[in-house]
């Protein structure tokens, strides 16, 4: 059985993995959702100096403090950035990395690089005007669809998302990933592609072409960008299959 460390995307905490974690435990796995600094119950630990390195240290520290071995690191969305850094630094403690509707970062890459320049500038203005210069509020639900498909999130889940989301420390978007950015050669690499990512892969986006070649293994999940909310049991089933 596998040991999963589940890392949430922007604005979210460990809470978002609750249903998926419960389903994974039902499959016999160890499932350990993690909240990063500045988010959810760790919100009061965040500040202007919270950045990508902070979140990498959160993950590596969690694994090392708990002396976890043969770990499967699961990254959703933004978490691809800190999980990439952590996987490279944890060495043989990592057995597998799983990117959920996301992909690993390259050295020198940052979250803002994934956005058109005008969108990056808009976020900077929003942080300066309404985030005390360091906090990025989660956008209204009707705007959230610009960041990823909200397919499958019903009204009840939407209410939970609105109520429990917290501002994202903006330094995690602006700081480039420092090397190394590659896990060990024997680390299993898995992509779980939801609708957004499936669309990009089928469109042949050049920077994602490597995900279609070994050693990568791909599983498709026909739901929106937040499968831990829209299809938690199905997501757990694919994670179980990936770890088999």
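^ structure tokens above, recovered residues below v
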């Amino acid at each position: 059985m596998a040991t999963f460390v589940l890392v949430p995307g922007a604005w979210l905490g460990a809470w978002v993995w609750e249903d998926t974690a419960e389903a994974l435990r039902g499959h016999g796995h160890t499932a350990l959702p993690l909240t990063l600094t500045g988010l959810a119950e760790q919100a009061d630990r965040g500040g202007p100096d919270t950045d990508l390195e902070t979140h990498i240290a959160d993950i590596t520290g969690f694994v090392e403090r708990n002396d976890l071995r043969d770990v499967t690191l699961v990254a959703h969305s933004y978490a691809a950035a800190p999980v990439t850094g952590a996987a490279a630094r944890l060495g043989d403690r990592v057995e597998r990395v799983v990117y959920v509707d996301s992909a690993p970062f390259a050295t020198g890459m940052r979250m803002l690089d994934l956005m058109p320049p005008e969108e990056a500038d808009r976020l900077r203005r929003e942080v300066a005007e309404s985030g005390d210069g360091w906090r990025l509020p989660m956008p209204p639900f009707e705007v959230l669809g610009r960041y990823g498909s909200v397919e499958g999130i019903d009204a009840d889940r939407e209410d939970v998302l609105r109520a429990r989301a917290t501002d994202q420390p903006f330094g995690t978007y602006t700081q480039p990933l420092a090397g190394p950015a590659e896990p060990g050669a024997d680390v299993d690499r898995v992509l779980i592609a939801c609708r957004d990512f499936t669309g990009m892969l089928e469109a042949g986006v050049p920077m994602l072409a490597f995900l279609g070649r070994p050693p990568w293994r791909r599983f498709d999940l026909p739901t929106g960008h937040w499968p831990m909310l829209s299809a938690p049991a199905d997501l757990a089933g694919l994670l179980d299959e990936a770890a088999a």
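Residues 52-65 form the longest helix (14 residues).
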